[in-house]
Amino acid sequence: MKQTELELAEIQNNYYVKHQVRISPDGVLKIKRDYALKDLAFISRLNVQILFISRCHNISFENISSKSCEDITVKYCKLKSLTGISQLSALNYLNLSFDKLNDLGPLQNMYFLETLNVEFNEISDLSPLSKLTKLKDLYIQNNKITNLYNIRNLSRLLTLYAGDNKISDLNGIQHMKNLKYLQLHNNQITDISPLQECRLLEYLLINDNQITNITPLQHNAQLMYMSIELNFITDIQVINQLQNFSGFRLENQQQPSPNQIQTSTRMKTIFTVRSHLEIIPQKRMLIRERLSSSIHKGELLIDAITNVQLNLSDKLLQVFGTAEHASQ
C-alpha cells in the first residue's frame, strides 16, 4: 500500500509515517506525542482531509502544503510560529489552542476559514484576522487581547468566545450583527452599550467584569440566557422586557438592592449565589433552596442569598426549604 493512498494513519511515538498505519475511509491523520516529528512535508503526499496533532513539541508548518486538508487541529504542541500555514489553501477549520503563539500574521490571507480556535495562547493583536470575513466561529479566550476593534468586519460571526483577556472596550462589536453566542467573562469591561446592536444575541456571558448597567440589553429581544455574576450591577429589571428570556446566573453582586424580576412560565432557570434579590412571582413556579450549584430547568434556584424577599400573596407559589427556614 503506497502512502499516497492512505486515508487514515495514526502515528504515536514514531518518526516515520510508515509506522503504525491504519486505513480508513474518513481521511483523518492523527499524530500524538511524537516528540521527534518536525517536518510535516509528508502531508502533501497523503489524501488527508482532517489532521489532528497533539503534544508534538517540535513541529512546524514551514514545508507543509495540501489542497485536500480542510480541518487541522494542532494543540498542546508549544507551537510558536505559523510560517508556511498559508500553503493550506483549503482550510475552513483551524484549531491552534493551548500553544505559544503571539503572531497571527500568516493567517491573514486564509479567506476560507469558517472556524478558528486560538484559545490559550499569547495573542494581543487581532488585526491579521480583519479580512477573514467568512469566519462564523472564533475562539480567542485566554490571551492578551485588549479590544475587538480590529475584527469589527467579521459580520458573519455567530459565535465569539473572548473571555479571560484584558478587554476594556467593546467598540467594534456592534458591527457583528449576526452574533448569537458571546462569551466575555473575566475581562475589564464597564460599558456594554455596543451590544445593543447585536439584536440576534441568544446567550451572553459577561460575568466577572466591572459592569454597573445592563439596561442596553433591553434592545436584545432574542436574548435567552445570560451570566452577570461578579459585577457591580444593582438593577436587573431589564430582564422583564426580554420576551424570550428563560434563565440567568447572578452571583456575588456587590451592592444590595431590592431588584424585581417579573417571573413567568418562560423563566426556566434563575441561579443566584450570595446576592441581594427581591423576586415577585406572577405564575406558578417552584422555588427550592439548595446549596448545590446544579441547575434544573423549570426551577428557580436560590443559593445562600441574603435579604431575599418573596411576595407570598401569590397563593400558587410553593416554597421548599429546610425546617429552619420554614419556621421563620
TrEMBL record:
Pfam family, one: LRR_4
Record keywords: Leucine-rich repeat, Repeat
SMART domains to which the protein is assigned, alphabetical: LRR_SD22
SUPFAM superfamilies: L domain-like
Alphabetical list of PROSITE patterns matching this protein: LRR
PANTHER family the record matches: LEUCINE-RICH REPEAT AND IQ DOMAIN-CONTAINING PROTEIN 1-RELATED, LEUCINE-RICH REPEAT-CONTAINING PROTEIN 9
The protein, known as: Uncharacterized protein
Organism: Hexamita inflata
